[in-house]
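Wed. Picked up where I left off yesterday with Protein kinase domain-containing protein. The coffee machine is broken again, so keeping this brief.
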Amino acid sequence: MQKGSLHMHLFNVTGEPLSWTFHYKILACVGSALHYLHYEYDQKVVHRDIKASNIMLDSDFNARLGDFGLARALDKEKTSYAEAEGVLGTVGYIAPECFLTGKATQHSDIYAFGALLIEVVSSQRPRTKVNGFQFIVDYIWSLYREGRILEAVDKRLADDYDTEEATRFLMLGLACSHPIADERPKTHTIVQMLAGSVAIPHVPPFKPAFVWPAMMPIDDLSQATLINTTPHSISQYETNWGPLSRQNYSGYADQAMA
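Structure written out below (tokens, as returned):
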């Protein structure tokens, strides 16, 4: 991988930014790799740590998704959850439901890919404080609401980028970052959206509120209670997604332990 990591190119402040022609190439490669893991490999695999530093580039800037240290094959009996438990990964790429269930899913990989999409176009880390926002995705949502989403594009590019593609990538990033897991697009659709052959799904102007899953299997619900009753887990959840209702939390815990 002669060109090193994607992270190195995005945040090399002394060098030239990635040419816009490489933006689509890299994102398309990663999208295809994720689709392969989720649906085309012999076992369904959840990567659990998609981020710029885990994407390596060859001499032609073809991207390879690497570092499978946290990756897990999906449990054959529970096709939606990864075998390993615990909120692992990198803050900013971790989907909100992971702080509740403590388990990774294909949906949580999609969330991380959404963070990556925004990161590639903006050259801003997912956990970036800007204009009063703690995370870049919330800032992008505010720009979209105000009709100024292209202001998120890496300023180093000046006008040397495709405005239609940049808008599509940022909007897809928001769609993949939907707080409700089931609302995120699937990988096969993402590949088509990146290519522009399928329209981006409707993205609401205001970021939807995170809704706790109403129908969760009892064993998963109990495990979520054990994970989230720790002060650290509650604190981490609130850092990323705002205050957690103690009354609702207590009721949820009582239900799980019943």
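Quick read: Residues 215-258 have pLDDT under 50 and may be disordered.
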